[in-house]
Amino acid sequence: MTAANQFNLNFKQYLQTSRVKGVAIPAGLQELLLAVADTCSTLSHEVAQGALIGLLGSAGSGNVQGEVQQKLDIIANDLLIEGVQGCKSLAGLASEEMELPVEVHGTGDYLLLFDPLDGSSNIDVNVSIGTIFSILKKQDPSTPLQTSDFLLSGRHQVAAGYVVYGPQTTMALTLGDGVVMFTLNKVTGDFVLIKDSVEIAHSTKEFAINMSNMRHWAEPVRRYVEECLAGASGERDKDFNMRWIASMVADVHRVLSRGGIFMYPWDQREPHKPGKLRLMYEANPMSFLVEQAGGASTNGEHLIMDLVPTDLHERVSVMLGSKEEIERLQHYHSQA
Ligand code: AHG
Ligand code: MN
Ligand code: MN
Q: Range of 235's domain?
């Protein structure tokens, strides 16, 4: 992606002046991306108020995944739906929090998918959380919306990104030609370009995984992590550092910012499920970003972006980040 060589561009100016592989960004896609960013800007203000506006705690309901919903899961979901209603090129949307897609204009070029609030367990403890989004090109813009329209591999994404609500509110975005980052100016409400050409170093000394699940992992993942833990005195000849924020959005932001790998692999707690994370709302958009930043993303056997979903709420085993580590993990899986 190329844009005017300035780091004080706001998001709107960025979209208007950028070229993706030499081509201007379609007006309908610009409108949709701006609507998502504006909603996340509003959400950032709400998140920052927390208990002051009664935002913390459980909503007392469950979602289609069988997970307890927090108040903020529902608020974020409703805000996003409302925020994109006016986008004429948006045929429909699907959310982690809703069983069925919502028709917006029925026909149109684009489909929006999102995890409105990622890292729900961190809301009440004031740790970084975020919003993850993915935009697919609808195969036939003229036909009425159906759930099957969404069941496309990650390769069909035309845009993907996240907004992390941390000490700063930062957005990462890819349109398929590199990764850029913006930080929210909380005075003007604008996202401002802070980084273009985001690159993930091919090698790393940092991994992220929920270690409390170690006894449930498959052998290749256990082998990989055991070797990291053995450090300089083991197979890897170097010491590793470990992080686990328990908000994928914040863990992936660290990987995009300073390298490393993030794993939420399949485990034996619920053996019939391919993993915990959702392919279409979490794994695909993050994999698109990571690949565009020079990293890789796999479920152990296949690149995540190549998986063709059969269900909107499909889950998947996820390992993503620095290329050399992902290749090592894939190799261990192929040997098992
Ligand atoms: P969500 O809040 O959208 O349900 O996603 C939470 C996910 C992900 O963000 C994170 O990496 C993982 O759950 C944390 O799971 P554990 O609590 O099992 O570590
Ligand atoms: Mn999530
Ligand atoms: Mn969520």
A: 206-335
Residue 264 CA: nearest ligand 1 atom is 11
On whether both 24 and 123 belong to a single domain, the answer is yes
Is there an atom of ligand 1 within 6 Å of 281 CB?
no
Residue 56: helix, strand or coil by DSSP? coil
From the CA of 96, give the closest atom in ligand 1.
Answer: 3
Residue 1 in domain: no
Cα separation, 163 vs 172, whole angstroms: 7
Tell me, yes or no, whether 211 and 309 share the same domain. Answer: yes
Beta bridge pairs of residue 94 = 113
10 Å CB burial of residue 185 (0-12, 13-18, 19+) is: middle
Pocket test for ligand 1, best of 95, 121, 281, 318 (most atoms within 8 A of CB): 121
In this structure, which residues have their CB less than 5 angstroms from ion ligand 3?
96, 115, 117-118
pLDDT band at 8; cut points 50, 70, 90: confident
Rounded Cα–Cα distance for residues 252 and 206 (Å): 12
Q: What is the mean pLDDT of the chain?
A: 96
One domain for residues 74 and 110 = yes
Instruction: Specify the residue with its C-alpha closest to ligand 1, atom 6.
Output: 119
Alpha-carbon dihedral 219, 223, 226, 227, rounded to 10 degrees: -170
Residue range 152-204, pLDDT digits in tens: 999 999 999 999 999 999 999 999 999 999 999 999 999 999 999 999 999 99
Structural domains in the chain (count)? 2
Ligand 1 atom, smallest distance to 65 CA: 4
pLDDT digits (tens, 9 = 90+) for 290-303: 999 999 999 999 99
Residue 124 Cα to ligand 3 midpoint, Å, equals: 14
Total-model pTM: 0.97
**pLDDT tens-digit series, residues 231-260:** 999 999 999 999 999 999 999 999 999 999
Q: What is the DSSP letter of 281?
A: I
If residue 47 lies in a helix (H) or strand (E), which one and from where to where? helix 27-49
Domain shared by 178 and 214, yes or no: no
- Domain-ending residue, one of 173, 195, 217: 195
pLDDT number for residue 62: 86
119 within ligand 1 shell (Cβ under 6 A): yes
If asked whether residues 144 and 35 sit together in one domain, one would say: yes
